[in-house]
Amino acid sequence: MKRPTSPRRPTIREVAARAGVSHQTVSRVINADGYVSDATRANVMQAIGQLNYVPNGIARSLSSRRSHTLGVVSNDISDHSFAEMAAGAELEARRQGFYLIIGSVEDGSPEDEEAYLRLMQQRRIDGLIVARPRLRRSSLRVLAAIADSIPTVAIASRVEALRLHSVDIDNRGGGRLATTHLIENGHRAIATITGPLDWPSAQARLEGAREALRKAGLGAQLAVASTGEWGVEGGRAAMSELMRSGNRFTAVFAQSDLLALGAIAELQSRGVSVPGDVSVIGYDDIPVARYMSPALTTVRQPMNEVGATAVRLLTQALANPSSSGRARRRHQLVDVSLVVRESVARPARGARRHQA
Amino acid sequence: MKRPTSPRRPTIREVAARAGVSHQTVSRVINADGYVSDATRANVMQAIGQLNYVPNGIARSLSSRRSHTLGVVSNDISDHSFAEMAAGAELEARRQGFYLIIGSVEDGSPEDEEAYLRLMQQRRIDGLIVARPRLRRSSLRVLAAIADSIPTVAIASRVEALRLHSVDIDNRGGGRLATTHLIENGHRAIATITGPLDWPSAQARLEGAREALRKAGLGAQLAVASTGEWGVEGGRAAMSELMRSGNRFTAVFAQSDLLALGAIAELQSRGVSVPGDVSVIGYDDIPVARYMSPALTTVRQPMNEVGATAVRLLTQALANPSSSGRARRRHQLVDVSLVVRESVARPARGARRHQA
DNA sequence: GAAGAAAATGTGACCGGTCACTTATGCTGC
DNA sequence: GCAGCATAAGTGACCGGTCACATTTTCTTC
Prior knowledge:
The structure is a homodimer of 356-residue chains.
Chain A: H1 12-19, H2 23-31, H3 38-51, H4 57-64, E1 69-75, H5 80-95, E2 99-105, H6 110-123, E3 127-131, H7 137-149, E4 152-155, E5 165-169, H8 171-184, E6 190-194, H9 200-215, E7 223-226, H10 232-244, E8 251-254, H11 257-269, E9 279-281, E10 298-300, H12 303-319, E11 331-334, E12 337-339
Parallel strand pairs in A: 1-2, 1-3, 3-4, 4-5, 5-11, 6-7, 6-8, 8-9
Antiparallel strand pairs in A: 10-12
Chain A binds a DNA duplex (30 and 30 nucleotides) through helix 2 and helix 4.
């Protein structure tokens, strides 16, 4: 009457007893490691089957000092990009026999960030992925402590101060790609709507855009509008700002699809046709981008690839702890790709001047 | 030179030695449980601080037989609904001091489903959430075994055969809500575009729609179109089928926002105005629904609430294992809500007859 | 047929906590 | 002055695996 709860699961020793071998032999069988004769193996397997034995991962972790668990501290995974990243990481982790503990932190509550990091420390995860575009000062301390003892990968975050591996989207390349596409379509007067400029990714995309223009000999022709957000309202506001300030442009590079969506709505509401009068290119390739009218030309970021790459970096580091973890930090860039649809066209003959 | 890797973390006994007490006293301090004098507590805390001691959750789990981990086996979390559910579950879990291991299974690869369930078994999770609309036969066996030993909650899945708790969106109520909204706006001839009818949720929404019509004395007036999918293409195809078959309707209830999107696109491409000529109501309230033109009136499902509820169900069951787990199974319905925007209006005076 | 290596198996400590007890001390009340 | 209890702390087994090493059996090889 000691444990009225579910009848305890069988242990390795019970299996051993039933098979008439030692517990260590059972261990050898379940780990397919070391010498075991075929007869014994069959014997043990049978006992396992009869008792319906499942090895206890926790006990395993304790004695082997490997939890086979990777931690992820990410932005809110309600956001599609992060969800994709998590899904990608997750798939790759399982392929490699690892569990994934995901912590989804809303952008507004950075105290959770720290709480999660501490939690991960207790859990003795084997590796950590941090996918927070902007990290909090106080979290950095904890993160540093963690990174000091286990392999850690940062995603789309610049924490170069810490000695982390990193995976990042090639944002600069993305900005270049988008802008070049506009230039190749014959546009010369180009505007851009950026995300919040305190996001490194927004900065990088902007730089990429400038780079593309410079390379095309179009110098500082870029009209820039920013609002503090990545959403539709921001796009609308930015577009109306662009027009009010009397800028001349035949194409717009919006740093997110939602910004593009807002910009297009604003344009259309003023009777400006897209892409007839103004071309628009977005960024992200959100699920509905292809269904918008016009279908949105945009830049696709393979976020699940990013997640998978991060996991691979970790498992590799775990596999060869070359000279006591002092391995070279690796930085990996993931390429973006252009998704051509209908929102970019050649500029109209006499490019109009747009203003309020 | 035994362990060239990171210098081992301090254990509870080392803390004890430094504080000059027994390991058990340290345990009492970190668990804030049992009698400890203030002086001793302070002493121990200091030692913990100096050694930078973090309790080892794995060892804890092993001896206490509680992993403080909940498992989630979900549909691919790239899908926004599931991502929201996961995020909601996650937040609630952390609030309650639990970890969450999320397994995201693509709809196409059901063998992963089983693999995950087995993995969870090894990990000795304390509770399980299954969020797969349709479970595979072979997974059911494993699931049954798990549910037999730990509390398990099914989300939006009808596995009544097994003795699981469940949380479900009130799909029938949702169908009723959407349809009633159309009726209240004066529509009498109503069509519906359903998701794949082998999804229980699609069935339930359809039933709800029928129910609303019956209640309004509109009998079997419902024109139903289905395609095998929930996406935009399906909506487009279904709408064109509806029109080809010469059905008369002034309003459409689409069982997902993407279906609605496709239906609207199809209508507009034929010069039918929404909501001028035909009203459309969707389901899901995907992020861009509010930005479509017209802004989509739809039914919102609080998926994060669903996830949180599932976690609560589990932690409650865990807290009182009333009479050895033979607790009554609980079934919880989560209410949906109407989000009124612009895609539903009163029908035009002489309702037109639409056909190819 | 002896020696040595390879194959097969067993033994007991250990991972780092918690659990169930035991022991010591200080107070209260009669 | 002592039973009886609350408070404070310690002891050693135990959770269920793996690890390091010891032991026994079976092949090779000369």
